[in-house]
Amino acid sequence: MNSERLQYLKLNKNIFLAFLVSMTVSALGANYFADQIELLNSTITLMIDHSVYYAVFGTLFYLDNKKKYILENGKINRLLLKSDLLKIVLSFGSSEIIYSIVRWGVQYELLILNYDAYMASVISHILAAIVFFIVINLGVNFTKLFKNKNR
């Protein structure tokens, strides 16, 4: 398997695992705040979701890529790190905006329709995650995150 495909697989694995953990924790949060109004429940759940997701994803991404940015002399390749961070921010930025809108909106509507809070959280998370996977992979491909001449 070539390096580019392996990098895409690692990225998607990290995103998937982070989504699983954040979905579980945010569903628990939604259930905990079930007695709150729908607007507040959706907002708090989204904040929990983002906090857990970025903590898990950041850790997994770091563990998979920490050696990539170290030069032979032991110093950090700041140029490559800066370039990749910019590509990641650009890819994730648009994906996160779309994810947040879908996640919050679907959960809010499901709560209005009297779904249990945890179920509304899980359903909205899954739907938003599907959209996120599509957009993030298009963004990573567009920014050429894994096609760097310096590697």
TrEMBL record:
Keyword Membrane among UniProt keywords: yes
Alphabetical UniProt keywords: Membrane, Transmembrane, Transmembrane helix
Annotated transmembrane regions: 15-34, 40-63, 84-102, 122-142
Name of the protein: Uncharacterized protein
